[in-house]
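2024-03-11 09:14:02 DEBUG pipeline.ingest accepted 1 chain
2024-03-11 09:14:02 DEBUG pipeline.ingest length=219
2024-03-11 09:14:03 DEBUG pipeline.predict start
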Amino acid sequence: MTVKSKHVRIKGIKDGLVFLLDDKCPFEDLLSELRYKLEHSHQNILAGPIVHVDIKLGERVVTEEDKDAVLDILRGQGNLLIRSVESLPVPGVVDQDALFLMSGMLRSGQVLHHTGNLLFLGDVNPGATITCSGDIYILGALRGMAHAGVEGNEEAIIAASLLAPTQLRIADIISRPPDEWETRESSMDFAYLLNGAMQIDKIHNIVKLRQGLNVFKGV
């Protein structure tokens, strides 16, 4: 079977590969070409040491099953390590409550941006930056910089299993961690804004905060 190379572009970057997937073609055609390239025309990238891969889906409405289908093809290749899966917001399609999942590790100098709410499985090391238009939830250590609500959403929050950032920012409010953070218990905390000032609380109080906001808005 011959598959024309037009829906999948593979680009080399400094620390890995970026798979750019066409967002206009039928999804099944996309999967077929991705599978074909890995099995036939691009076998050379599968030889050698571990290669980190970032997947960019473009402006495409995708379900979790769609994402899994793409990941299953790539995970079948032993040396490809998926670092992120990113899709751009589709005009006219907005899900304010959706929580997008990414995994990996952000090292010094790396920047990860997502539009919407993000659940990141991994550590954000010193010198790394994670930004998001919605909430940021990190199942790991936040030791770098995090900016939630980048488009001005002051109700956004930043939560982490270990909260020890170099800087936190929500909307336009910037807070550098006080010196006592180095000695206080900082596990399972989250940051939020109250009257224009950064506050820190335990993650189990997020529900109370959200309920309070809804009551205030009359929801």
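2024-03-11 09:14:41 DEBUG pipeline.report The chain has a mean pLDDT of 81.
2024-03-11 09:14:41 DEBUG pipeline.predict end
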